[in-house]
Amino acid sequence: MATNLPEHFKCPISLEIMSDPVILSSGHTFDRPSIQRWLDEGHRTCPITKLPLPDSPILIPNHALRSLISSYTLLPPLHQIISQPETLISTLILNSSSSDSKIDSLRQLARLSKRDASFRRRLVDSGAVSAVLFCLDSSSSSSSSEGAIDRVVNFLVGAATSDCRALAATIITSLAVVEVNKATIGAFPGAIEALVMILRDGKGREKKEAATALYALCCFRDNRKRAVDCGAVPILLRNVESGLERGVEVIGVLAKCKEGREQLESYGGCAKILVSVLRNGSSRGIQYALLALTLVCLHSKEILMMTLQEGVLEICIGMVEDNSEKVRRNASNLIRVLRGGNHHRIS
Fold first, then answer.
1. 3-state DSSP assignment of residue 200
2. Pairing label, strands 29-31, 60-61
3. Which helix (H) or strand (E) holds 162?
4. What are the pLDDT digits (tens) for 181-190?
């Protein structure tokens, strides 16, 4: 089952799924038995950054990650559930199905869609999105892509509860698996604005799902300016500062457009927020924080100087041997920018 779980669930030392994740003072997370063995052997450097540690390093339990790993491992392996979409969809569209069974099917489809990218595509191809929309509004029979988007955006804006808004955002992410839908959804009046509003006013899970949907949409170039025009950049930075790391992935993508960079440059504390992700974030969060800093520093001498003052050059040097190839490449790009050199590829 470990092969189906996200990479950041694995200990960087043992490469096994962590049972007791703890945070080292360097900001990186390890499985307690693995990092304890490392320390017991006399090492006083972080295994990832190679930066020195205190004589008596403190291991802080990573309760959030432990809970997330537990919620994944409670699910059966994918090969046991791969045949379930059709059964779940049938439950959604049958008039004889109870409300409780429909809600349970919706929850299972949402959980399955998060586990594996290829499985999300299978859900879309198997009709899961249409079935969910049918369940949300059984009075309508529209099955066209534009009709589906109309219904889900209306539901996103008008849903009465946080769980419903989170589900609507998840559906948008699933629809955006199909490339052409990214453009269609992004151009649809109110779609991106609704996601930004959830990031501004929503709660935990709905914010995370909204950020995921916004990231999926902004992978399409034309949607980036739309998101910036809706005020996404300052809202995302505030969310990242308060702990929503998923937001930094969107920031990394928005930094690829001129309008996004200008908003980042004008936000006081932007460099400090992104550097905090470098020190304390997951591998994926670090990857996108490096990307955003590189793009902004290329166009703003002021942000470049702030970034240097935050000690980022030393942090990046410690990341050039990171386990993640994308982190290594993005760290090398930022080092070249901070040192005044040129770089060939940003991704």
1. helix
2. unpaired
3. helix 162-175
4. 888 889 988 8
**Domain boundaries along the sequence of the chain:** 7-74, 85-230
Residues in contact with 95: Cβ distance below 8 Å, sequence separation at least 6, in sequence order: 138
The per-residue pLDDT for 124 is 55
Tell me which DSSP letter residue 10 carries.
B
What is the assigned CATH class of domain 85-230?
Answer: mainly alpha
pLDDT digits (tens, 9 = 90+) for 65-98: 887 777 665 544 444 444 455 566 556 555 566 6
Helix, strand, coil percentages in the chain from 3-state DSSP, rounded to 5: 65, 5, 30
Residues 13, 30: contact at Cβ < 8 Å? yes
Average pLDDT over residues 145-170: 74
In single-letter form, the type of residue at position 252 comes to G
C-beta of residue 270 within 8 angstroms of C-beta of residue 254:
no
CATH architecture of 7-74: 2-Layer Sandwich (3.30)
Indicate yes or no: pTM above 0.70.
no
Q: What does the chain come to in residues?
A: 347
Give the bridge partners for 69, in sequence order: none
